[in-house]
Amino acid sequence: MFTAADGYPVRRQGGTAHIPESGLIFVCVGCCCGHAERGGPKTPPRTLKREMRRAFRDSGMQGRLRLAFTDCLGPCSEANVVFLYLAGRPLWLRRVNNVDVFRRALDWARAALDDGGDRSLPPPLATLSFAWTGGGEGPAPPIDR
C-alpha cells in the first residue's frame, strides 16, 4: 500500500486515503483517429475505443493510470495517436491501430511505473514512438503505413 512515508502525496476523501494516479493516457478520438471516413486508419467503426476501455479495465491499472479519450491531439498524419505521461515523462505513440498495441503500451507502462518510470521501450513500441511539440503534420514516419 502506498503511504505518505513512501513519498506519495496522500489526501483524505471521506475518511479514506486517496493516492493520485502516477500517469495519464490520452487516446485521440478526434478529427481522424478512429475515423477511416476522414482519412484515419481503417479500424472497425466504434470498436477500438470500446476495446481500449476493456483492455485498460482488464490491465488492473485503475488508480495508477488515468485513461482519457480526447478530441484531436494531432498530428493527424500519425493517426491513431496515443499520448502517455508517466512519472513526469511524455511519450507519443503513432498508429495504435489495434488493441494489441494498446495492451503492449499498458504492459510497458506497468513495468515502467514499477521501475520508477525508468524503463526503455521494447522494439515494437519504440518503432511507434515519436517526438512532437505541436503544429504541422508531424514527423516523417520511420515505418510503413
Describe what is shown at a glance.
This protein is α+β, with helices and mostly antiparallel strands and 145 residues long.
Topology:
Elements: E1 11-13, E2 16-18, E3 23-28, H1 48-59, E4 65-70, E5 82-86, E6 89-93, H2 99-114, H3 123-126, E7 129-130
Parallel strand pairs: 3-4
Antiparallel strand pairs: 1-2, 3-5, 5-6, 6-7
Helix pairs in contact: 1-2
Superfamily (CATH H level) name: Glutaredoxin
Query: Biggest β-sheet, characterized?
Result: 5 strands, mixed
Number of domains: 1
H/E series:
EEEHEEEHHE
Principal-axes geometry comes out as globular
Q: Examine the coordinates and then state which fold CATH places here, giving the name of the CATH topology.
A: Glutaredoxin
What is the overall number of helices?
3
Q: In percent, how much strand structure appears in the residues?
A: 15-25%
- C-alpha termini separation: 43 Å
pLDDT < 50 stretches: 1-8
Count all strands and give the number. Answer: 7
Sheet with most strands: strand arrangement: 4-3-5-6-7
Mean pLDDT: 79
Q: Which CATH C-level class is it?
A: Alpha Beta
Radius of gyration: 16 Å
The SS-based structural class is alpha+beta
